[in-house]
Amino acid sequence: MRESGLRWRRVRDAAFTALVTAVSLAAVAPLFHLLWAVFSRGVRTIASVGLIRFLTSLPPAPASKELGGIGPALAGTALLTAVSTLISVPVSLSVAILAVEFPRNPLSKAVRVMSKAFMEVPTVLLSMLIYALVVVPMHTPSAIAGSLALSLVMIPYMTTYIESAMESVPRTYREAGYSIGMGKAEVTFDVVLGAARRGAALGIVMGVARGLGETAPLLFTAGGSHYAYPMGLWWPTDSLTLLIFDFAMTPYKNLNAVAWGAALILVAIYLIIFATVRALVKEVRG
Amino acid sequence: MGRGRDKVFFLTLLPFAAAVVAALALLAAVFVRESLPIFLREGASFITSATWSPSTNPAKAFYGILPAIYGTLVTSAIAVGIAVPASACMAVFVNEVLPRGVREAFSSVVDVMAGMPTVVYGLWALNYLAPALQKFVMGPLHTYLGFIPLFACTPVSGYSLLSAAAILTVMVTPYTFAIVKEAYSSIPLKYREAILSIGAGRFETASTMLGMIKPAVVGAALLGVGRAASETVAVTLVIGNSPSLSPCLFSPGYTVSSLIATQYGESFLYPYMLNALYAAGLILLCLGLGLSGVGTLMMRRWRGLRNA
């Protein structure tokens, strides 16, 4: 009786191990198939066009046999990412400093809760918000509108990361700063952010990576043509993600192929940022 | 003296931070203002009707978003229904099965999945996942279990509620896994030692540990539904975008966010359509904030219990 109970438990443990292993491998399997698909189809497109030409020329006309490039979309993504980073960094830093260095002030508490709430707002709604607030008054979609929408996605992420980096600086460092007569601003910038600069910088990079891959916030705000380079902040612009979204849905084979090439570029940028951040995090911890 | 300087510092930070508060207030104001006309005009039938008929004649235009609400609820429910048990399995796999050296590697792979641009998931699902599901899942289910209303319709194309649910499952799993794993790893070592000391096997250990983090798992499920409901582009690419109301999972449909993504561009052509889309967005916003609020509260209560 005891013997069979033991055997049953062994069998049950083995079956359980097999189950959790199978489920876990199945859960990550899509990533590998996706990476393989993006790589093989992306390389096919880029190889037949040439990397430099793919990155710098205009997309092909629909329904032609030609393949082209993603020049305007790439330039647009660079512009949108740069501007939204410029907007997001000061705001995120301010919110994080208020939250960590003035924790008891009711105003900073409110700001903290509200910046977190933005993380839960569906990103397509941010696009609608900026449409109503910026696109309608300007009578045109624009790079600035797209950047503002992206900033609303990036700020909560950056804030969270910067906050936790600042919170990890020991209380005693701050006290040491005050004891030699520093004010709160000096302690915050010279002591706390000095010690937490690596973590804060990583947070900013994570936020940028997040913004880079977003599509929904740009749907009604950036509004650019896939065939025209952005002419400045106040003009419409394309982005890599918008181009992939539109070209994936078209029935034209040549545009589908360009979408895969663009996806490879986007995934490559994302993976490079991810790997860099990982390497730096290890260095910080180690 | 120092106090005064600190006050100045506080006040210089305030405008930036106030921008965040202002943005949230504007969000509420814009969505309420824009959706009010449609609620006043259609009342509850905006939510309970399945008729989506844009018209340039204001008298004829009518917008009901029941199919989109059904699509959002059913796809998120399926996605979370699979993702949460899978996340529990993965948490056990990482903590109990994998050797210490490769745990980090597995978690990194899941992290890569979590941050992958959503449009890339959409592109992949459109080309591979939806066709594969049509051939290997929808076909057989329809042939053998066609008497169940969920499987009753012929899968004409792969673009359907089921495909949307499937890609949402793939995308939500890393998110729920992160929450469940954090909770699982945070169980104090002494509990684990106590469980092992009475001779518990792997199954007994894992089920006891999972029992201890039940509130976190429920929290993960609620946050996961919020996440799934708000996903836009990947779903738009595979759901087929049709305003028909059918309980069948193999038919094309809408979610609230895919309805917005596909209709917003033309909405200025039709009276009340923009209002209808803002109202749909407002409903989505309330759903998302409500779920995440309850989910976050559960997580916080659980953390409080643990630390007590």
The CATH topology label of the largest domain in chain B is: MetI-like fold
Supply the CATH architecture of the largest domain in chain A.
Orthogonal Bundle
Element-level helix/strand string of chain B: HHEEHHHHHHHHHH
CATH C-level class of the largest domain in chain A: Mainly Alpha
Q: According to CATH, what is the class of the largest domain in chain B?
A: Mainly Alpha
Q: Please tally the β strands of chain B and state the result.
A: 2
Indicate the overall shape of chain B.
globular
Biggest sheet features of chain B: 2 strands, antiparallel
The largest beta-sheet of chain B arranges its strands as: 1-2
* Mean of pLDDT of chain B: 90
Number of helical elements of chain B: 12
Percent range for helical residues of chain B?
over 70%
CATH superfamily of the largest domain in chain B: MetI-like
Main interface by residue count: A-B, 78 and 79 residues
Helix and strand element order of chain A: HHHHHHHHHHH
**Count of DSSP strands of chain A:** 0
Which secondary structure elements does this structure contain, and how are they paired or packed?
The complex is a heterodimer of chains A (286) and B (308).
Chain A: H1 2-49, H2 51-56, H3 71-101, H4 106-117, H5 123-138, H6 143-167, H7 171-179, H8 184-195, H9 197-212, H10 240-249, H11 253-285
Helix pairs in contact in A: 1-11, 3-4, 3-6, 3-9, 3-10, 5-6, 6-9, 7-8, 9-11, 10-11
Chain B: H1 2-42, H2 45-48, E1 52-53, E2 62-63, H3 66-97, H4 100-115, H5 118-145, H6 161-185, H7 189-197, H8 202-212, H9 214-230, H10 233-238, H11 256-263, H12 273-307
Antiparallel strand pairs in B: 1-2
Helix pairs in contact in B: 1-12, 3-6, 3-9, 3-11, 4-6, 5-6, 6-9, 9-12, 11-12
